[in-house]
Amino acid sequence: MRSRYVAAAALAAGAVAGLVLWRRRGGASPRPAVQLGLSDGSVHALDAADPDVATLERLADAVRRALLETG
User: Fold this and answer.
1) Using an 8 Å Cβ cutoff, are 59 and 44 in contact?
2) Phi and psi for 47 in degrees, rounded to 5?
3) Within a 13 Å sphere around the CA of 15, how many CA atoms are in the beta-carbon half?
4) What is the per-residue burial (b if ≥16 Cβ within 10 Å, else e) of 7-38?
5) Assign residue 42 a region: left if phi > 0, alpha if psi is -120 to 50, beta otherwise?
6) If DSSP codes are grouped into helix, strand and coil, which group holds residue 45?
7) Per-residue confidence at 71, pLDDT binned at 50, 70, 90?
């Protein structure tokens, strides 16, 4: 009797875990590579192929280096 209870609990836990994983994979949309928050509250998303992405990455590296040098 106890083994049936343990088996049923394990089956239920596996079903719940499978449902959670299925919902997470199916409902999530891929996030854009770069998002810019604008002053009016809107968000502008850049594609990975956009040349502005490379410019932003270079600027971020320059800021990071400058902060490390002064800190």
Assistant:
1) no
2) -75, 160
3) 6
4) eeeeeeeeeeeeeeeeeeeeeeeeeeebeeee
5) beta
6) strand
7) low
d(CA 35, CA 59): 15
CA distance 9 to 15: 10
Q: CA nearest 32: which of 62, 12, 52?
A: 52
| Phi, psi angle pair for 48, to nearest 5° | -65, -25
pLDDT tens digits for range 4-56: 989 999 999 999 998 888 887 766 566 666 777 888 989 888 877 788 888 88
